[in-house]
């Protein structure tokens, strides 16, 4: 026993001078010190880094009234007691694990962040199910988080981790109802804009932008002030998240160049929230879909961020031993019940006291989840006849339901739970400094930023408009060669009508190629709107203004080729009307695609719906059967009048044939209206083509107005419901 103790002391002395978690002793040198006469109860987990359990103090910058703590917070933190469980583990204090310098180098200096304390008392969250607010997802949770620390919410699938995190951040879906109290700097005031950041489990990034460009545009959308100030904030965020080596690299890659890996992408999504310099940062599953190396790098980076003063609260499903050692406090949940809250090392002692000691050479997080995850009961039932070398299949010799009840009862009666209540009382005894809003960028600024960003993205993303331009040119060349050499005789009228119909209908149908890009834009907007970085109006206006140059380029290039190959009337004013009419047709089609994509949010169903809508509009456009002969219900009213194909084709044919005269024999002639009357229904009024143009313009804005209503009044509910559904699906799959 003395030999084991001496070797563990040697490991402690060696780990205290380690420069980073990666320089620790190999896993084969990890030891546990056990009580004399006890074979399975660990007392000290030597694999964890050495921590300083002395008083937790929060220091704020001079004049840090934006988010600094008041006297009550400093008084409470100055008297923070050492966890009762930790006091039983080691008599001496343990040094904090070293992390990289905040600046990333001697020449780089990153400003400190004024953090804020957060505490929650008797927090209960219910979800609206079959019975109104019947399902309790989180049950009477208590806890707190200090500036400069990392507090992790851990538990198995469907334990309420993400729900608790959203409740603390004030981002619960409409189907949830919260009871209890959440205090920020000792007061129950709502956290204003810019005082906190929230990073979803999966965030949408713009792959055609570099890391620096993406963060810079995010800063322009979020922050008021001058451009030079925002550049400095962006550089600070890049340094804080260790992204200097990737700052000028495209997020999604280009051609044969690979984009960022999942670990770097995750850090970029966190850096986007850091440009606001939030006092509290909430992160849902920062290690989601990361390998062990990326996970360790992520947590070391977050530890560095916490050392700058930021308050970090995040959820995690499972972690390695090295990652677990970087946590300051852990909130362990199972089925919404809090099984433990306190220092990470004290959690090991808590499990040992409850009769579930952590086996040697096993990761603490694996042991915790093994004990409280009910899914393991099914595995044990399948493998009940199997025996391992030690004679036991599992270190936990009872089912998880009993383990959960035992751990919960042990925690409620422990000194750790009492110390948590004492600390919450001290943090909420007096109100500290109120967090203040940092201001937003103006609406005009956001529109300008989104317009310029859309132009940049559309010019770089070849699948957005360049692919459609190529398809339009191929289609136009095919139609032009098919209908070339028609002449201007009376016998070519029907064929010319078919050419115009095929050009407008098929070109609109090919616009479906832009559905994936529009869906990505809507997802990016949803991600930015959830954090109040953007709004429905500025998004639609920026997207509309950004798409105009590309749509006009497609319209003028396709119209010129079609116009001259088919041989329409040689008049410049008529040519310009043809170009403008087709441009309006593309604007309407773009609005229709936005409308369908906003409803479905899925490539398959959006594409299927758009094809069906276009086919119905083509049938009602009056080419296959003149509109006067269409059945009145449904086909004439409303299909023929809501089909933009009808107004576009009618305007183009009026532009071509009104004012034209065709000779019939040697002495008789008929007007263009009379010549086309048997093939397509148009108006004899010369101003009718401009009315059709106005109808197309009204439809272009009408579709976008509907999209605005859907995004403005329906997005929050849809996003919340989808996030909740995705959360449950991910948990069930895991």
TrEMBL record:
The keyword ATP-binding applies. GO terms for molecular function: ATP binding. Keywords: ATP-binding, Membrane, Nucleotide-binding, Transmembrane, Transmembrane helix, Transport. SMART domains: AAA. It is a multi-pass membrane protein. It is found in: Membrane. Residues 118-360 form the ABC transporter domain. The keyword Transmembrane applies. It holds the Pfam family ABC_tran. Residues 1-28 have a biased composition (Low complexity). Residues 1-29 are annotated as: Disordered. The chain crosses the membrane at residues 465-486, 498-519, 540-566, 572-596, 603-626, 693-715. InterPro entries: AAA+_ATPase, ABC2_TM, ABC_transporter-like_ATP-bd, P-loop_NTPase, Plant_ABCG. GO terms for cellular component: membrane. Belongs to the ABC transporter superfamily. ABCG family. Eye pigment precursor importer (TC 3.A.1.204) subfamily. This is ABC transporter domain-containing protein.
